[in-house]
Structures are given as C-alpha cells and as structure tokens.
Amino acid sequence: MYGHVADSYDRWIARWLTLCAAVIFGMILLGGVTRLTDSGLSMVEWKPIMGVIPPLSEADWQVAFDKYKQYPEYQKINFDMDLSGFKVIFLYEYLHRVLGRLIGLLYFVPLMLFWMRGMVKHSLRGHLLTLLVLGGCQGLMGWYMVKSGLVDRPDVSQYRLTAHLGLALLVYAYMFWLILSLVNPRRMIPSMASWWPVGLVVLVYLMALSGGFVAGTDAGYAYPTWPLMGSSFFPPTLYEQGWVSAFEQVTTIHFNHRMFAYLVVVTLTIVALMQYRKSSDSRVRAGAVLMVLAVLLQASLGVATVLSQVVTPVAAAHQSGAVLLLSATLFFAHARITERSRI
In degrees rounded to 5, what are phi and psi of residue 73? Predict the structure, then answer.
C-alpha cells in the first residue's frame, strides 16, 4: 500500500517537472529569439518585482525609451530608432524576463506544496533543492550578462552569454534526468563500465556551449557558405591570435563549432548504430533512433542557418534543435545505464 502511494507521489512530481522542463525549453527558445533580434539590452534596469509591470501609457514608454538612449547600443547602433521600433525589441526582452519569473513561481510554489504534504521522498529532496538554487543563479546570471552590454561595448560578453546558456541547459538536463528516473525507476549501479553514455551527453553539451560563443560574437554571419568557409575548408586566419582565438576570434569560433558538430554527428551515429544492433532493450533501441534523428536534424538546421545568413526563424529552430538533441541523448544515456544495471 505504501509503495503504491509513493509511486503515485512520484508520478505527480514527474508531471510537475515535465511541465517545468517544457516551459524552460520555451524559455531557451525565447532567449535565442531575443538574442537574434538584438533585443536583450532594451531593458536597462533589473527590477525583480516591479519589472513584471510593462509601460502602460505613451508617457511610460517614452521614459523607458529615454533610459535606453543613455546606453551604448542606442548611441552607437540604434541611434536612428524611433519609439515604435523600441517597443518591438522591448517586448521580446520583457517576455523573456517575465517568463523567467513565471518559471520561478511554477517551480517554487508546487515544490513547497509537495514538500509540506510529505510527497517528496528523501532521496529526491537534495536534487530538487539543487535545481531551486541553480534556477536562482540563472536569474542572476541573466542580469550579469546584460550588464556587460551597458558599459562601453554595445553587446553582451560572449563569455557571460555562454555561461547563461550553459546554466539554462544544465538546469534543463538535470530536470530531464530526474523525470526519466521517476518515470522509469530502475536502480543504477555506479560503475565506469555502465556510465560511459554520460560522456555523449557531455559532448552534446559542450557543442551547445560552442554555439553560445558563435551567438555571442555573431560568428554565424561571417561565412555564409558550406561545406567550405569562404573559398577553403581551413580559413587562413585560424588561431591567428593564439589560443584566445577559440573564444574571441570570429573565424576560429565559427570553424571550431563546425568541427565540433562533425565530431558529434559521427560519434552519436556510430554509437547509435552499434547499440541498436547490440541491445534487445526497446528503450535503448528507441533512444538510439531518436538520437540519430535528432543529430541529423540539428546538423541540417546548422547548415541551413549558415546558408540563410542566420535568418531568425531558422536560427531559432537550430537553437531548439540543440535542446532536442540534448534530450534525445539524455534519454539514450538513461536507457543504456538502466539496461546495464539489470545485467
């Protein structure tokens, strides 16, 4: 009887976490659109409580616009922007921030209710509290990122942008893994032999971080050709500034992201084909198929993004594809580890 009740509690928590993960997915997509439309610096103040109230009159809009005019992005880039144009970019950033606050409430309030009703088992409490802390850090990281574009450079730091993206993906991946563990509660044996699939997850995660540097430096616009970069596969200016080129030079950042993508496509495809043939577990086989489909879709979206010269809908789909690929790889890794634990 107790076991049945505990399973019921786990199912409720899994449903709640699934809703949170879906909204975080949307948050990552909206964050990408905000970046692609150059809207992230339109709100120059951080008001965690009062910031949910948008300008309600023309006078309020003018006050917000006048504040924006005091900062480098308007003075150096958007100096010819009028109030109607400002409203458009403001709306993207406003929705992004409000959605972040909504996620906080969507996570915190049910967590407290589940906790007070004794529905959270002891083995899960530390994980859920860790997610709460990481979520709070993500909000702070978002403002820390925006601040870097309000000084003298009319753009945010690619380091802070990548950290912001990386933390969002970490929260999503952590949550997704907990959902899989609640839905399919098989005991895992902590051995190096069974945990190698996590390396695939790390590989996909690092590729996504390299995409953060591409976005943070606008490196995607530099070479609208494929498979060559310009007229050659290896551009002549690769690493001309030394190792720092990997993080600050557009050509090298773009090249590294392509090479990372090729590595991920080849590695995941080979592993998936081998495991599909080797395993008799339906979850492992399904995970292998999903992983191959996701990586091929993501690679295709990457090429399309380059050839379209980073048109917003395609580039936003590419960022969403990264989350889908991460999800598929997590599913495969969890299935493979739990299959191994039964042997």
Answer: -60, -40
Q: What is the largest CA-CA distance in the chain?
A: 69
Count Cβ atoms within 10 A of the Cβ of residue 124 and give its class: 0-12 exposed, 13-18 middle, 19 or more buried: middle
At 127-175, the pLDDT tens digits run 999 999 999 999 899 889 988 888 888 888 999 999 999 999 999 999 9
CA dihedral 201, 203, 206, 207 (to 10 degrees): -110
CA dihedral for 133, 188, 185, 281, sign (positive or negative): positive
- Beta-ladder partners of 229: 232
Look up residue 341 and give its two tokens.
């634990």
Residue type, 107: Y
Provide the domain count of the chain: 2
Per-residue pLDDT of 260-311, as tens digits, reads: 999 999 999 999 999 999 988 899 999 999 999 999 999 999 999 999 999 9
φ and ψ at residue 285, rounded to 5 degrees: -65, -40
Same domain, yes or no: 137 and 197: no
The answer, as to whether pTM is greater than 0.70, is: yes
Evaluate whether 341 touches 186 at the Cβ level (below 8 Å).
Answer: yes
- Same domain for 208 and 150? no
> If we measure between CA atoms, which residue out of 92, 114, 87 comes closest to residue 39?
92
Angle between helices 250-278 and 312-342 (to 10 degrees): 40
CB 280 within 8 A of CB 257: no
Q: Mark which of 155, 170, 185 sits at the end of a domain.
A: 185
Cβ-based neighbours of 178, under 8 Å, separated by 6 or more: 17, 124, 127, 128, 131
Q: How many CB atoms lie within 10 A of CB 290?
A: 19
Helix (H) / strand (E) element for 88: namely helix 83-116
Tell me how many helices (H) and strands (E) the chain has: 11, 0
The DSSP call for residue 244 is G
pLDDT tens-digit profile of 191-209?
555 678 999 999 999 999 9
Q: What pLDDT score does 187 carry? A: 57
